């Protein structure tokens, strides 16, 4: 509005300035002289024409002399002007006028009678001068008329600008008064809007902070205990990346609706940011046991949202719970505790909920320490690889080894397994670089094994989903195999649930290309779900991994039947069955009885260094010094 007022003032000033401009000079002072000159030339031309009839009388000479005197005065006056055709000696009009004046002067001095031929010549010259004077006069008059019309138009525009500016300033004054009286109400509306999340309609982080500040400011006796529930949507980033932001937004809205439906008695439900939500429940209205029951019910019946092609996507949410002021003196401290419980819930199982305990803060600090050290892990050469032997059960021979990434963390003075830091590496965009290091190291190591022992071993590498979605992975593996002098079958890529269950076409395309190049494939974690079953027909893997949970989650008879069925399915597909996590002789016996071909786990051998793998193979080959866990197969 201020800018509009300034603009109105500038427009008015410009209009006033235009009105104060003097009338432009387009030749007005010259045109008056030219009109008189034209009249005198017309008289002179007529006189010369008349005198030709009777040039011999004294009166004719007198009339000519008078006309010559008048024309001389006029010519002198015109020559003294700063503008016009007589100000420049080079113009034709000036030249002819001077010639006419000279002829008139000569006739006047000659006396009577007048020379008839000279009169005729002078009459021709006067006619030309008359014509040129008329043309010039008309041209100047037209120019003056155009300039004066433009001046009038500008004056009219200036008055229009002044009137418009005055009107605009009046309108702005009225609007300013109106806005002044509406200002308080608008400020109240803005405060309310700033505390509301535009997508879900819930209170946002600022609104929650205002609520928390108001609660903490109350007298200690007036405070009510609150359970603070921090929710996080599981796999939200994957949904956003795979199905688009529209589906992600729909999932956030559905999550907000489900929280409002499940906790109608909550003191406040807020969207904390991203895919995180905070629910504050007064414990005077709802007990911790009732909260636990509601969270369990939510986990068993998750809400759903429509995805592309009308696919129904479940909304699983992990939750961490803390109590204010029991777990934290301030609501902010209690939220930190709830965050720690949320991390614990995610580490246990997606969709779980966990109540805060003091030791969880230590885990959160550990995670922060791990995250801070991730960028320097590769440059400082803190990563290394160990290898878990894989054996053929019937031949008691080493066939390969699974590569495990390890991190010698300097700040923690401890060696971390990949499960302790790869989630953080994925969040910080470093998982792809770590996978490349694991691949390069594993290829170099298996090349040394093949040169040292007769067993044609292979190395098993499990990759992150982000690496399997990378279109350059196939070329990278081809380069590593060529540099190490390895055949493609010396490398086996293991596909775990995270990649397989993503149902990403990029992952399937990468695995198909690797299989076409001769790289071995293994589908992992059978017994934890059936998501990978849909990939069997397309990929034709060499190994199907049966998870160790099948060995301990069923009664022995059922377990043996399940393992045997999977082994038969693998044989039908031309694949071999691997039992992972073998811990006891009984596990190995059951795997052998179920016709499983391969085994690995602590009951076979813990992970070893690269040189120890060769020693392990020699121990198996010698028989006498083989590891105690490897039992002799039956005669059959």
Beta-strand content bin? 5-15%
Fraction of helical residues: 55-70%
The helix-and-strand class reads alpha/beta
Please, how many helices? 21
What is the typical, i.e. mean, pLDDT? 82
**Morphology:** elongated
What is the makeup of the main sheet? 8 strands, mixed, barrel
- Which stretches are poorly predicted, pLDDT < 50 over at least 5 residues? 527-531, 624-636
Please tally the β strands and state the result: 16
Detailed description of the structure:
The chain has 636 residues and is an alpha/beta fold. The protein contains 21 helices and 16 strands. 56% of the residues lie in helices and 14% in strands. Strand 9 and strand 10 form a beta hairpin. The two termini are 96 Å apart. Residues 527-531 and 624-636 have low confidence and may be disordered.
Topology:
Elements: H1 2-19, H2 28-51, H3 58-79, H4 92-110, H5 116-194, H6 205-216, E1 226-233, H7 236-243, H8 245-262, E2 268-273, E3 276-282, H9 288-300, E4 304-306, E5 312-314, E6 317-324, H10 331-348, E7 353-355, H11 359-377, E8 383-392, E9 397-409, E10 414-417, H12 418-427, H13 431-452, E11 458-462, H14 465-468, H15 473-484, E12 491-495, H16 497-500, H17 505-516, E13 520-526, H18 536-539, E14 543-546, H19 556-572, E15 576-579, H20 585-593, E16 598-599, H21 610-622
Parallel strand pairs: 6-7, 9-11, 11-12, 12-13, 13-14, 14-15, 15-16
Antiparallel strand pairs: 1-3, 1-6, 2-3, 4-5, 8-9, 8-16, 9-10
Helix pairs in contact: 1-5, 2-3, 2-5, 3-4, 4-5, 7-8, 10-11, 11-12, 13-15
